[in-house]
């Protein structure tokens, strides 16, 4: 059974996720921890729960989701993976991080790439990679169909959607990702978003003012 622990980090109020199961193996998704106290908070949880971090996944390369990449890879000796199309987005962070006050940002590059249909494995758990461009060109999500759980990054929020005015964003592509991929899944799937509270696909189909398909 997947256990989801979320942390809200950095001034962008980004959701960092630690996914684990009964074996104690864990995956960190989108580490936004930049300040030392944020890093300590995340590490304390992992230690207290006796977890073994075996993977680091970026849903996309925007600054708020990657500030802790260096910390996680060095502390736990894991590799970082993402979609290849978002590498330019990730590399750009180093050039603009100081303008947001992140003068100590330490860039890393992905060790390998994830594509639609690939499987993330930890313990007894498998999660499927979904390719969900629009907010960023190489945006991905992590889906467990049997446990009805989706880590959506910044594609879909509770009654909102990801912004598309950043380089590589495209509003129509984002809506296609939501309507043609996410909204074909079960209504009961719980969506863990990159910002804000979780929601369900059924709720968003009916009430999301940007992309609802049901009345």
Molecular structure report:
The chain has 215 residues and is of the alpha/beta class. It has a single domain, classed as Ribonuclease Z/Hydroxyacylglutathione hydrolase-like (Metallo-beta-lactamase, Chain A), CATH 3.60.15.10. The strands form three sheets. Strands 1-2-3-4-5-6 form a six-stranded mixed beta sheet, covered by helices on one side. Strands 7-8-9-10-13-14 form a six-stranded mixed beta sheet. β5, α4 and β6 form a beta-alpha-beta unit. It starts with a strand and ends in an 8-residue tail after the last helix.
Keywords:
28% strand, six-stranded mixed β-sheet, alpha/beta, Metallo-beta-lactamase, Chain A, 215 residues, single chain
SSE run: EEEHEHHEHEEEEEEEHEEH
Low-confidence stretches: none
Q: Could you tell me the radius of gyration in angstroms?
A: 16 Å
Structural class: alpha/beta
CATH architecture: 4-Layer Sandwich
Q: Could you estimate the helical fraction of the residues in percent?
A: 10-25%
- What's the number of structural domains? 1
**Roughly what fraction of the amino acids lie in strands?**
25-35%
> CA-to-CA gap between the ends?
33 Å
Number of helices: 6
Number of strands: 14
Overall outline? globular
Cofactor: Zn(2+)
GO molecular function, one term: metal ion binding
Keywords: Hydrolase, Metal-binding, Zinc
Protein name: MBL fold metallo-hydrolase
């Amino acid at each position: 059974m997947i256990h989801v622990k979320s942390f809200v980090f950095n001034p962008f109020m980004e959701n960092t996720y630690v996914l684990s199961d009964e074996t104690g193996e864990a995956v960190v998704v989108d580490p936004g921890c930049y300040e030392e106290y944020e890093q300590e908070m995340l590490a304390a949880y992992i230690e207290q729960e006796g977890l073994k971090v075996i993977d680091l996944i970026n849903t996309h390369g925007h600054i708020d989701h990657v500030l802790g990449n260096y910390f996680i890879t060095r502390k736990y000796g894991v590799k970082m993976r993402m979609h290849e199309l978002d590498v330019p987005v990730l590399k750009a962070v180093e050039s603009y991080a100081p303008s947001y006050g992140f003068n100590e940002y330490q860039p890393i590059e992905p060790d390998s790439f994830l594509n639609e249909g690939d499987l993330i494995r930890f313990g007894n758990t498998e999660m499927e990679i979904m390719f969900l461009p629009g907010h960023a060109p190489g945006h991905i999500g992590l889906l467990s169909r049997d446990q009805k759980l989706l880590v959506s990054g910044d594609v879909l929020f509770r009654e909102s959607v990801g912004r598309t005015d950043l380089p590589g964003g495209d509003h129509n592509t984002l809506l296609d990702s939501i309507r043609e991929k996410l909204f074909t899944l079960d209504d009961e799937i719980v969506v863990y978003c990159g910002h804000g509270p979780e929601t369900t696909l059924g709720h968003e189909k009916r009430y999301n003012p940007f992309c609802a398909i049901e009345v």
